[in-house]
């Protein structure tokens, strides 16, 4: 529940976001099949990183229940909040500028998730423990790898979708005259 609450707080600012010019150049028709394909392509990437985190926490850090819950919350919030910056645009992540409020809320929520276990009374009440410093090295590496893979897959996905939408000559498309 804490994960959902923190994520929801970070996304309060999404209504302030600045969209890319090409996204508002003309009317957009909702395509449920496109959204379904998008989810079927991108959700498994998240699953892979979830399981990677489980493995690292359990086998490399020997995490008990408290460290597992702590590490999982921090990694989950970091990737869940930051991937929004990649999937909110067709452009590469760093070529599309989000609204400052959205960026501030996102990084603020990640900071809160990382700080909660370090505040003794709060962390203890939530059942968290301070992660070892190497966990944060893993967190940075895994998050950057996750975002990089999402960017590569996003590029392939949109290229495939644009090819799919082009009519083929002889199948309902006008051919050469």
Structure overview:
This protein is 66% helix and 0% strand. The chain has one domain. The radius of gyration is 20 Å and the shape is globular. The chain is mainly alpha-helical and 177 residues long. Helix 1 runs parallel beside helix 3. The chain has helices at 2-10, 32-60, 65-87, 100-115, 120-126, 133-165. It starts with a helix and ends in a 12-residue tail after the last helix.
When the domains are counted, the total is: 1
How many DSSP helices?
6
Secondary-structure element order, N to C: HHHHHH
Beta content comes to under 5%
- Structural class call reads mainly alpha
Distance between the termini: 62 Å
Helix content: 55-70%
The biggest beta sheet is recorded as: none
Unreliable runs, pLDDT <50, ≥5 residues? Answer: 167-177
Q: Count all strands and give the number.
A: 0
CA gyration radius, whole angstroms = 20 Å
> Averaging pLDDT over every residue, what do you get?
88
Can you tell me the overall shape?
globular
Provide keyphrases for this structure:
mainly alpha; 66% helix
Secondary-structure topology with pairs:
Elements: H1 2-10, H2 32-60, H3 65-87, H4 100-115, H5 120-126, H6 133-165
Helix pairs in contact: 1-3, 1-4, 2-3, 2-6, 3-4, 3-6
Q: Would you summarize the structure shown here?
A:
The chain is an all-alpha fold and 177 residues long.
